[in-house]
Specification:
Layout (H helix, E strand, L loop, with lengths): L1 E7 L2 E7 L11 E4 L5 H9 L3 E4 L3 H22 L9 H22 L2 E6 L3 E2 L8 H8 L7 E4 H16 L1 E3 L4 E3 L12 H8 L9 E5 L5 H8 L4 E6 L2 H14 L5 E5 L8 E6 L4 E2 L11 E2 L3 H10 L3 E12 L1 H4 L5 H10 L2 E9 L14 H6 L2 E8 L1
Parallel strand pairs: 2-7, 3-4, 4-5, 10-11, 10-13, 11-12, 13-16, 14-15
Antiparallel strand pairs: 1-2, 5-6, 5-7, 8-9, 16-18, 17-18
Helix pairs in contact: 1-2, 2-3, 4-5
InterPro entries: DNA_methylase_N6_adenine_CS (IPR002052), N5-glutamine_MTase (IPR050320), SAM-dependent_MTases_sf (IPR029063), Small_mtfrase_dom (IPR007848)
Protein name: Class I SAM-dependent methyltransferase
Keywords: Methyltransferase, S-adenosyl-L-methionine, Transferase
Length: 382
């Protein structure tokens, strides 16, 4: 929580600031209402200001959409023509440029603010009831009036809708219900790989699922007949989400959840890890499922695997090779890390992506996405 402050004809005003992503409170605050044009709002936001909305809720949503279109037009004007070489160095450059543009867009659009009353009542005309969605994302309401980003609020509402209806997982034959800030298993290729890989030759009485997230991999292991599973995560949101899903599936008696940075204590016949697939700094909880600073989780899994396997056990690394096609990490580097951890590759399954972006030729990173493969590496100690 922080404080935002602004001035008008009535004097100086302040509100508490709430952000699920720990974004700092904006410092330069102006006012906007139904008379504010998108061009005027864009000028203020692009110069580092923020706008506290005082008009109709639906008009605020329309303004946010109009601002998004202006951001896209501005980015298109300033973007250098994409070169056709297709080399990894070029793709690396494009990737960093695209990611920077997305971050700048998020920062600018995140500066349109809405006022709220205690109990998560949006203090605007025609505002919807968002109390349940906000309670899921933020926890108990502040006791004083506060402000939050409209863009973030819309994300909170969308996450609540996903949580309510769930996501059908064909490999599981059931729905997974992602919580706010927990990465949803939208791409199913890696889930299919886990169901196809042969279990270790030794009886698989215990498995570890590292970085469980929604709990979907732990649920799939239970469906495959693994007797007991310990699923870990360092995110309280993820642990709560996994608990919810396992209870819905009637598998909470088979899976024990544990707060841990990576490994639980002890050894298992099978250790499964699906780490973030791109090295880089995460800027949000959802980003942390995609970006792994210095490949910390990947290397931690590899370095600790041999010590956490029982004799005859296996480690399953589920990892996209998109980083290789973007020039962010080489295959040789990954294989060197595997060898340095005292491990050997005893099998490998891979699958091509099936998500729409892999077929979108207009995507600046199309060459990398079309070449991407997700693999399940079966690893064992040397």
């Amino acid at each position: 929580m922080g404080i935002i402050t602004w001035q008008d004809e009535g004097g100086t005003h302040e509100l508490e600031w709430l952000s699920a992503t720990d974004a700092p409170p904006p410092r330069k605050i102006g006012l906007a209402d139904d008379r504010t044009t998108a061009d005027a709002a864009y000028r203020i936001l692009s110069q580092g200001g923020a706008l506290q909305w005082q008009g109709d809720y639906h008009n605020a949503r329309q303004l946010l959409q109009a601002l998004g279109r202006r951001v896209e037009r501005s980015a298109g004007k300033g973007k250098p023509a994409t070169r056709k070489s297709g080399g990894s160095a070029n793709l690396t450059e494009i990737f960093h440029r695209e990611r920077l543009a997305r971050a700048q867009r998020a920062r600018l659009l995140g500066q349109l603010l809405v006022p709220c009353e205690p109990g998560y009542r949006i203090a605007l005309r025609r505002a919807p009831d968002v109390a349940t969605a906000c309670l899921e994302a933020y926890g108990p309401s502040p006791e004083q009036p506060f402000a939050l980003s409209l863009r973030e609020l819309l994300g909170v509402i969308g996450a609540h809708e996903w949580r309510q209806k769930g996501l059908e997982v064909a490999a599981l034959g059931a729905r997974i219900h992602p919580h706010y800030g927990v990465f949803a298993p939208i791409r199913s290729e890696y889930l299919d790989l886990l169901m196809q890989a042969p279990l270790p030759a030794v009886p698989t009485r215990l498995a570890f699922d590292l970085g469980t997230g929604t709990g979907v991999l732990a649920a799939l292991l239970a469906r495959r007949g693994v007797e007991g599973i310990v699923a870990t995560d360092n995110s309280p949101r993820a642990l709560a989400c996994a608990q919810d899903n396992l209870q819905r599936l009637g598998l909470d008696g088979r899976v024990r959840l544990e707060a841990a940075d990576l490994y639980p204590a002890g050894q298992a016949e099978l250790v499964v890890c699906n780490p973030p697939w791109l090295p880089g700094r995460a800027s949000s909880a959802l980003d942390a499922a995609i970006y792994d600073p210095d490949s910390r989780m990947l290397r931690g899994f590899l370095d600790g695997l041999a010590a956490h396997l029982t004799p005859g056990g296996e480690g399953w690394l589920i990892l996209s090779d998109l980083a290789e096609h973007l020039g962010l990490r080489s295959r040789q580097q990954l294989e060197d890390w595997i060898a340095a951890a005292g491990l050997r590759v005893i099998g490998r399954l891979e699958v091509a992506p099936r998500h729409p972006r892999a077929a979108d030729a207009s995507d600046p990173l199309h060459a990398a996405r079309a070449a991407e493969r997700t693999a399940l590496w079966r690893l064992a100690p040397r």
